[in-house]
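User: Can you predict the 3D structure for this chain?
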Amino acid sequence: DVQLVESGGGSVQAGGSLRLACVVSGYAYGGNCLGWFRQRPGKEREGVASIWTYDGRTSFADSVKGRFTVSRDNAENTVLLQMNALESDGTGVYYCAAWRVLSGSFVYWGQGTQVTVS
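Assistant: Here is the predicted structure, written as structure tokens:
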């Protein structure tokens, strides 16, 4: 079974930083895409960042460009989300997700980790 386990959430003051990690197992990690999403209170889930594990290509939502970075550690099947200059509207549950090629979408999801910016 595919499992994604996030960690690193917590509380931080506006302007601070957090780093989220997602460990992936049971998944064809190589040559695939992993993404970070978030669901803020009262809003729909939205994409934040993604990375292709093969070549490290990344993409970001406009709202986080220049503040968030995403990286991967292929040896550890881990994807990281470094969040800097966090803003108060960054509060929410952050999810890691894995792409399934045959579906053409993110179909595997972690349980989420809470980020609170005050």
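The mean pLDDT is 94. The two ends are 37 Å apart (CA to CA).
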